[in-house]
Each structure stands twice: as structure tokens, then as C-alpha cells.
Design a protein that fits this description.
single chain; EAL domain-containing protein; elongated; 18 helices; TIM Barrel; EAL_sf; 8-stranded mixed beta barrel; 2 domains; 403 residues; alpha/beta
Length: 403
């Protein structure tokens, strides 16, 4: 089980109404961390959690969230999975504003994301540093502790009444609040108004699995090829493996120029099947993953062969999905709710019912007959503990007095 510690602090508008939360992610030692490729596993874990159902529990259904971003998270596509209508990308004050980073900020802005500047100290140096970005910034978080009062007033005069909103950051006392309220800020944040609350969120064991399942849902929902390309780019490893698979395919003898080209030439059905193979073979950490992959493939192909012409593709998917619980260490019902697949597939996976149930039962019977035979032939080679694990995992109670 992976646990993420998240500090959330309220941000209020000038009518003292809750406007947003600032989210700060903590590592195992409760030190602040962020979206960074240097801590890729943590980044994926954070993203998988804040894009799940936990988000509404954390924030409510409509409140915005500010999240800190640096140059790495902007350039590497880690943020692509975030909902642009829920998140404000908070640019850190020490960010390296090179040309590539600026280009990425403009790109995200064109996609509809909102940006804020963190700990803006109102100095001439800070204004000069971010001058090129002001056309893309929505909120400036003006640090009232770090800012000289005369500089604060100059920045207020420059931006007040413009498209850019101003937030008074680090309001520590009642006097602070009264003072800066008179200056006419749009938003307020600080310990006087709200002290950060640290909460725990349980993250998925393998966030990449959920991202792949989301992609499968996008394919099934018939979204545009552009959306498919955009989503796949979020996972560099996935993009690489897809291009590698495509290059190794003898069917296509073309030079790859883009992911769009790969998706178009492969077609959605082939892409969907490849993703399921990737899910079993690449993402699974199960030591028996190769055997499970072979079993899943054979089961899917059998069910496809037995289905009528109209339902062959669906039968194949049903067969592959029927073994997902073997690679996910989580409730299979939660997974199926997450991606909301076709009702016939969902019915089979969750209840072993529906039009594909007879085919699945037949396939499982053949699988078990073979496994029974091989277990009996090799029973003396099996470890006692492995047998106990297998029995208890399958819900078979072991009489401990006879061990």
C-alpha cells in the first residue's frame, strides 16, 4: 500500500468565501515534494491519486487546487493528466525560465490551464524575471512577508483592475488581514485564515496501470486521434514501447514520424489489443506474468473464436479483462468502475454472467484440467508454503491442526 501525505490550505476570495486549496505533497519524512522527474515514482503516485475519486473527497466537487510545478514537470509531460478545470499550475519562484520552459507554459496555457506565480516578492528583479510570462499568468501570489511595502504598492498599481488577479500570501495576523484587505487584494492565504491540514491518501500500487486503463477507456469512447496521441505522450515508456512494437511489425514498412502516424496506421482495435498485452507483460510485477500473459491471450482467442461475428472483438476484450485481477493488487470492482467498460464485459468480469459467461467457464475448465494434471505430476516439488498461499488466496480454509 502506498500512502501520500498531502497538506492542504484554504485560499479565500475578497468576500471571505472559499476559493481554492493549495496542495503540497509530502514524502515519507513529511518534507515537501512536488511533480518532478527526479522522483518519478512519487510523481506518478501523486497524479494517480489526485486524478481518482479521492479528488472530490479531498477538495469537494467544485473547488480549485493550486499545485506547485517546476521546469522538469513542465517539460516532461507529467502534468498532462491533470484536469485543467480543477487545477491551477503554481510556478515556483526559483524556476529556471529557459526558452523550452516558456514554450511549455504557453502550450499549457493554450490548452486551457491556469497559472499562478508563487512567493512573488514584488522586487524589480522578480518583475524582470517573469516579465515575459505576465500575458499567460492568471494569479500572482504576492508574498507580503518578503515584499517591501512600497514595491507591493507598485505591483498592485500595475496589475489592479487587469486580467491578472492578486493574492496576498502569508497573512499571519488579524492586523495583516485588515491591512491587506484595505489594499484591495482579490484573494488571501495564510495561517491567520487557515492552518494547513495534513491528510493521507492511499495511492494505487502501480499508477501506470490506471493511466493505461484510462487510455483504454478513451479508445472505447471513440475520442479523437488527437486526444489519443496527447494521452499516450504522457507516458514516455509507453510511447517508446508502442513505436518499438510498430517498427517490429512486418505489416508496416514505413518510417515513423509521429505517434499520430502510428495510431492511425495501427487502428483502434489493434491499439487496444496491444495495450492489453502491454498491461500484462510490461506493467505486471507478478513473477508469473509471462505465463499469465500466455494464458490471458489463449483465453481471449478462444472466446473470440466462439463468439458470433458481431461480438468477436468484445469477446476478446472480455477474455483479457477476465484476468486483470491477476496483475492488480486491488479490488477488481474499483478498476471496472474506473474505466466503465461495456456492460457485457463488466458483467463477465464482476459477476461471471452475461453472453460470454459460458465461453469463460469452458475456458477455465480446460485450464484447470491442465493445471490439475501438472500439479499432481509435480506435487513433490512444490513448497508447502506456496501450497498454503494458493489455497488461502483461493478461499480454501486449511485445517491447521492437521499440518
Amino acid at each position: 500500500m502506498n500512502i501520500i501525505n498531502i497538506s492542504k490550505q484554504k485560499i479565500f476570495d475578497n468576500k471571505n468565501q472559499l476559493f481554492a486549496y493549495e496542495l503540497v505533497f509530502k514524502d515519507s519524512s513529511l518534507e515537501p515534494t512536488g511533480f518532478s522527474t527526479k522522483i518519478r515514482a512519487t510523481s506518478q503516485l501523486i497524479i494517480s491519486s489526485i486524478t481518482s475519486n479521492e479528488l472530490d473527497k479531498l477538495l469537494g466537487s467544485k473547488v480549485l487546487a493550486f499545485v506547485n510545478v517546476d521546469e522538469e514537470s513542465l517539460q516532461k509531460g507529467i502534468l498532462d493528466v491533470l484536469d485543467k478545470d480543477r487545477f491551477v499550475l503554481n510556478i515556483l519562484e526559483d524556476i529556471d525560465l529557459n526558452e523550452k520552459v516558456i514554450a511549455k507554459i504557453i502550450q499549457y496555457k493554450k490548452r486551457g490551464f491556469r497559472f499562478s506565480l508563487e512567493h512573488f516578492d514584488s522586487s524589480a528583479e522578480m518583475i524582470k524575471k517573469f516579465n515575459r510570462l505576465f500575458n499567460y499568468i492568471d494569479i500572482i501570489k504576492m508574498d507580503v512577508v518578503l515584499s517591501l511595502h512600497e514595491n507591493l504598492e507598485k505591483v498592485m498599481e500595475k496589475f489592479k483592475g487587469s486580467r491578472i488577479k492578486l493574492l496576498a500570501q502569508n497573512i499571519e495576523t488579524k492586523e495583516d488581514y485588515q491591512k491587506y484587505s484595505k489594499m484591495g487584494f482579490d484573494y488571501y492565504q495564510g495561517y491567520y485564515l487557515d492552518k494547513p491540514e495534513v491528510i493521507e491518501i492511499i495511492g494505487s500500487k502501480e499508477p501506470a496501470q490506471f493511466i493505461i486503463l484510462q487510455l483504454i477507456k478513451i479508445i472505447k469512447d471513440n475520442n479523437s486521434t488527437e486526444q489519443l496521441e496527447f494521452f499516450i505522450k504522457k507516458q514516455p515508456d509507453l510511447s517508446y514501447k508502442l513505436v518499438q512494437f510498430f517498427n517490429n511489425s512486418k505489416k508496416f514498412n514505413v518510417k515513423i514520424e509521429s505517434l499520430m502516424q502510428v495510431i492511425t496506421l495501427m487502428g483502434r482495435d489493434k491499439l487496444l489489443r496491444w495495450l492489453l498485452l502491454y498491461l500484462y507483460s510490461e506493467v505486471s510485477k507478478n513473477p508469473a506474468s509471462k505465463t499469465i500473459l500466455a494464458l490471458a491471450l489463449r483465453r481471449a482467442e478462444k472466446m473470440e473464436a466462439e463468439a458470433d461475428r458481431v461480438n468477436k472483438d468484445k469477446a476478446y476484450l472480455a477474455g483479457m479483462f477476465s484476468m486483470l485481477s491477476s496483475i492488480f493488487e486491488t479490488d477488481i470492482k474499483e478498476l471496472m468502475n474506473h474505466i466503465q467498460m461495456d456492460k457485457d464485459i463488466t458483467s463477465l468480469v464482476l459477476e461471471r454472467k452475461g453472453i460470454f459467461a459460458p465461453s469463460l467457464i469452458k475456458a477455465e475448465k480446460e485450464e484447470k484440467e491442465y493445471l490439475r494434471q501438472i500439479m499432481l505430476e509435480n506435487f513433490d516439488k512444490l513448497h508447502t508454503t506456496d501450497l498454503i498461499y494458493t489455497l488461502e488466496y483461493g478461499g480454501v480454509e486449511v485445517d491447521k491442526s492437521k499440518l
